[in-house]
Design brief:
The protein is α/β, with parallel strands linked by helices and 978 residues long. Helix content is 40%, strand content 12%. It has 35 helices and 26 strands. The strands form six sheets. An eight-stranded mixed sheet has the order 5-6-4-7-8-3-9-10, sandwiched between helices. A seven-stranded mixed sheet has the order 13-14-12-15-16-11-19, with helices on both faces. Strand 13, helix 27 and strand 14 form a beta-alpha-beta unit.
Length: 978
């Protein structure tokens, strides 16, 4: 029948949308119909089965009820626009409504009071009144449904806002003779929606429903997505239409134009595990599935229902492949429509992305199936694999209802943007929609944001509620991040989202915390089962738990290959290091030297180059521009990767690296020298030692002196009564973690060849010993350990307390409305420097784009860059300041992003740096067509690759990265970046 036929002229005159540039507009009835129809399409063709099941499970009529509810809420979400507070905003449209008797004051006359009735809140109040007065609901029953209307602009209303509007009824209906007509129009619109969208007969039964808060969140998010699509004039034209269309014709054209890929529909794979792995992964000839991988597949099939699975296994054991195999089974069982693979850093995200794409290519799917794919971090658009995907997608202009106003950006602006972020489907673009892509690899921050009180949080929850979530390197997250991760896991459990957690070095206590966060706090017999989880010392180990269930464990065997690593102390002196490596490398060989700070990396590299020559020493750390960092990683893989894939140096070569060598790179060295670090990270570093067989079990292809794996531990004064880690290491990790690590390793350090670290057998015992409460102290260390422990506990308590400031609450009891759900939150949370600082215990950092200022004052891209994949030059490309640079030059400049070190994270220095950067503010780059450079801080280097900033001298080289020293004009002391 349609809404138009159900309404009288006054109701038909109410407007909802107006476009200032074209004067196009939409009446409210049309937008209601459009939004409801879009919601129906989303439910039928886009929403994963797991999300539909969760919503349906809360309603008496199951999936039929659930679809009707989603369509109806999307249809009525803008009922608050049928109020004087909203309608007065466009005078010519308000005047038409006055002509039908709907009187209202002008926008100016209404004044500031109008802000008390934003149309979302007004709609929530009107819908609640209608349910109470026309259908006998109570106030307590309405809020759980109406909050989806109140929160459709990203923030559920708070109780104080509701009460303030109650005190100003004239904002909803003009006082005087027309008040009755306003009320009649509002009720007429809601009555028409109830009939048109088929919910009138359901409302009585819904009075007894208590909607779980996760369901309320999903309903709110679906209303938001429906509204965004139905508000896009490129998809759903405003009046007057060029070609008049019926309602169904409008939505059919919009849906066709949007062209959203549907959800992944996983099917349970073949029972034979060897066949499954051979078909999904590029296994070497003759490779057999490892016991851990087989156990993960079996456990995914045997769990009572899909839940949380923790996989603990050694480095190089194939945990990623085990996770993806389990994901396919868990998705098939749960109805999940995608995967989110969360990794600790951008570098690990970049490394994982092509592996995810390769796995996707191998998944069985009907012909013509398409998947939306996203690399989710702030530098994603600079990733070549992702850029290729994006180049094949069509462009669709998208409405971003709370985008920053278009005004001149300056370096001092708080709303600095991260580098451009694009996704493989053009509509799924921007801060709020990107994670809705079906397959996502990205930094764990994107997952932790789901536990942060922030605007449009419901969208983040919708994005993860329909996926299987994989959390890699779970040991890499400190107390601050773990506070957010545990809360997110509790919501994932409430959404029945399958989760796979991966770690090589997980403390047993943390294993229990992860399982309990997901399943919920256990009591009685179930609590005893969690005690077993916290005490298990087996390795490898698989732990599984379902929401509200008791954990189960599997103890597969390790794969046959192991490595014995001899440990040895090495005095912390660069000359001692150089002397030792001269002896070790007399017959050639490749050495990895890992330092805990960039300053120590550069100091060691300088000393080693004097002995071995510049060509035989490579530096790798975090203070390189993005394009150089990527080239460093690629170069390390090319020279030190697996046999058959790498061109290994023939003579001696030394790589001096920071913690970047711990993760993501499949590199293999003959000898390891490392600063003392927490034991789990030391074990990760040992995973780069004799990682592959070179010349069989005897390693005969390695230099004879280096065929036995050895690790030299330095960065410590070993001659002190209690080992004393260097200052930089203490600043990074804390004294307690370092001393506990040294204590755990002491038998191996003292035992030498007689007591090597046996990998993987010793991994779990060492980790548990280093992190267990009440572990014995070596003789004479008691006081030092107790003092360090007290500082450690104080720091952890401080981290936990600060993390809870903006942490989302746990899901409340069913039926309790989401009012105030994100009260006292942080506003928008995204992958900018401010956003990341909310979920990591780190100071806000400055990111700059590095360019070169020539002697004539013009700007250009830095001069050492190699051509791109098409052979186009990238070095020295002009960057004109009176116009937007060419696309190639702009993208090349953006690829030279650099995060400044911690010296620039202190408030006074950061403010001074921003003042300095104001001097190179380029208005011509702050326009809509300049998506690569708009909003970026520009740092120009002179032709000697140097500059001054905030009292520091900065020097950059493609071989050593950024070096920071105090400006001698202001201070004589020298400090390199750490």
């Amino acid at each position: 029948m349609g809404l138009h036929a159900r309404l009288d002229r006054p109701a038909l005159s109410v407007w909802a949308k107006h476009e200032r540039d074209s004067d196009g507009w939409l009446p409210l009835w049309r937008h209601m119909e459009d939004s409801a129809a879009v919601a129906g399409r989303l439910w039928d063709e886009w929403l994963p089965l797991s999300v539909r099941r969760l919503i349906a499970g809360a309603l008496p009529g199951g999936e039929v009820d659930a679809r009707r509810l989603v369509v109806w809420l999307a249809g009525v979400h803008d009922i608050g626009k049928a109020t004087p507070a909203f309608a007065c905003q466009v005078e010519q449209l308000a005047q038409v409504m006055r002509g039908y008797g709907l009187q209202m004051r002008s926008r100016q006359a209404m004044g500031a009071d109008r802000r008390l009735a934003p149309h979302g809140l007004a709609g929530q109040v009107l819908l609640g009144e209608w349910l109470e007065e026309r259908h006998g609901w109570t106030v307590k029953q309405t809020g759980q449904f109406t909050v989806a209307v109140g929160g459709h602009h990203g923030v559920p209303p708070e109780h104080g806002q509701i009460q303030a509007l109650d005190r100003h009824p004239h904002l909803l209906r003009t006082h005087g003779p027309s008040r009755t007509l306003w009320k009649r129009v509002q009720e007429e619109l809601l009555d028409a929606c109830a009939d048109e969208f088929g919910v009138r007969e359901s409302l009585a039964a819904w009075r007894a429903v208590k909607l779980p808060q996760p369901v309320q969140v999903l309903l709110s998010a679906l209303v938001i997505v429906s509204d965004w699509i139905a508000s896009n004039p490129d998809l759903v034209p405003y009046f007057p239409e060029d070609v008049p269309r019926t309602g169904p014709e409008r939505i059919a054209a919009a849906w066709s134009g949007l062209d959203l890929p549907g959800p992944w529909r996983a099917e349970e794979p073949a029972r034979d595990v060897q066949e499954l792995f051979a078909s999904r992964f590029d296994l070497p000839s003759g490779a057999k599935v490892r016991p851990v991988q087989e156990a993960a597949v079996e456990l995914a099939r045997e769990m009572d229902e899909p839940g949380l699975m923790v996989i603990e296994a050694p480095m190089g054991e194939g945990k990623t492949e085990a996770a993806l195999a389990a994901v396919e089974i868990l998705a098939a069982r749960s109805g999940a429509g995608g995967v989110f693979f969360a990794l600790p850093t951008m570098a690990t995200g970049n490394a994982m992305f092509p592996r995810l794409l390769d796995w996707l290519d191998r998944l069985p799917a009907p012909k013509g199936t398409r998947h939306s794919v996203l690399l989710a971090h702030s530098k994603a658009a600079l990733n070549d694999n992702f850029a290729d995907l994006m180049s094949n997608s069509r462009r669709i202009a998208a409405v971003d209802v709370d985008a920053f106003e278009e005004r001149e950006w300056r370096p001092s602006s708080r709303n600095r943007c991260a580098a451009a972020e694009l996704v493989a489907h053009a509509w799924l673009r921007g801060r709020k929609k990107a994670m809705l892509s079906s397959f996502v690899a990205g930094t764990v921050d994107q997952l932790l944001f789901a536990g942060l009180k922030s605007r449009h949080l419901a969208m983040r929850h919708l994005a993860i509620a329909g996926k299987v979530v994989v959390i890699d390197e779970a040991h890499a997250y400190d107390t601050y991040m773990s506070v957010y991760l545990d809360r997110v896991l509790s919501w994932l459990g409430a959404y029945r989202v399958p989760v796979v957690v991966l770690s090589a070095t997980l403390p047993a206590g943390r294993r229990r915390e992860l399982a309990e966060a997901y399943a919920g706090k256990a009591t009685g017999e179930a609590a005893a089962a969690f005690d077993v989880v916290a005490q298990a010392g087996d390795y490898p180990l698989l732990t599984a738990v379902t929401p509200g269930g008791a954990p189960v464990m599997r103890r597969p065997a390790a794969s046959a290959r192991g490595t014995d690593v001899e440990l040895e102390r090495l005095d912390d002196d660069v000359d001692v290091l150089a002397d030792r490596l001269e002896r070790e490398l007399a017959g050639g060989g490749c050495v990895l030297v890992v330092r805990n700070t960039v300053r120590r990396v550069l100091e060691a590299a300088a000393a080693l180059r004097e002995r071995f020559g510049d060509a035989n020493v490579t530096v790798a750390h975090s203070c390189f521009i993005d394009v150089d960092r990527a080239a460093k990683d690629a170069g390390l893989l090319k020279r030190f990767g697996p046999p058959g894939k790498a061109d290994r140096p023939q003579g001696a070569h030394i790589v001096v690296a920071s913690q970047v060598a711990e993760q993501s790179l499949d590199v293999d060295f003959d000898l390891l020298v490392t600063d003392l670090a927490p034991v789990d990270l030391l074990l990760q570093r040992m995973g780069r030692l004799h990682r592959h067989l070179r010349g069989g079990e005897e390693q005969t292809d390695r230099p004879q002196r280096l065929r036995q794996a050895r690790c030299l531990v330095t960065g410590v004064d070993w001659n002190a009564p209690v080992p004393a880690p260097v200052r930089g290491s203490r600043a990074v990790y804390g004294a307690y973690a370092l001393l506990r690590s040294a204590a755990a390793l002491l038998p191996h350090l003292d035992g030498g060849r007689e007591r090597p670290v046996k990998l993987p057998a010793d991994i779990s015992p060492l980790v548990q010993q280093a992190y267990a409460d009440g572990a014995d102290s070596p003789a004479g260390w008691e006081q030092a350990l107790e003092t360090a422990r007290a500082h450690h506990e104080e720091h952890r308590a401080d981290q936990a307390e600060r993390a809870t400031t903006f942490r989302l609450d746990a899901a409340a009891r069913p039926g309790r409305p989401l009012f105030g759900w994100i009260a006292a939150g942080v506003g928008d949370a995204d992958d900018t420097r401010q956003g990341r600082a909310q979920v990591r215990d780190s100071r806000e950092s400055l990111e700059v784009v590095v360019v070169q200022r020539r002697t004539d004052g013009t700007l250009a891209t830095v001069p050492w860059l190699k051509p791109d994949r098409q052979g186009r030059p990238r070095a020295g490309l002009p960057l004109p300041t009176d116009q937007v640079p060419t696309a190639l030059a702009a993208r090349t400049a953006a690829s030279c992003g650099l995060r400044l070190p911690i010296q620039f994270s202190y408030a006074e220095v950061m403010d001074r740096a921003i003042d300095d950067l104001e001097e190179l503010h380029i208005p011509a780059w702050q326009v809509k067509g300049s998506h690569w450079l708009a909003g970026q801080l520009i740092l120009p280097l002179d032709e000697n690759c140097q500059t001054r900033l905030a009292g520091f001298r900065l020097r950059y080289s493609p071989s050593d990265g950024l070096e920071v020293t105090r400006d001698e004009r202001q201070e004589g002391s020298v400090a390199r970046s750490g």
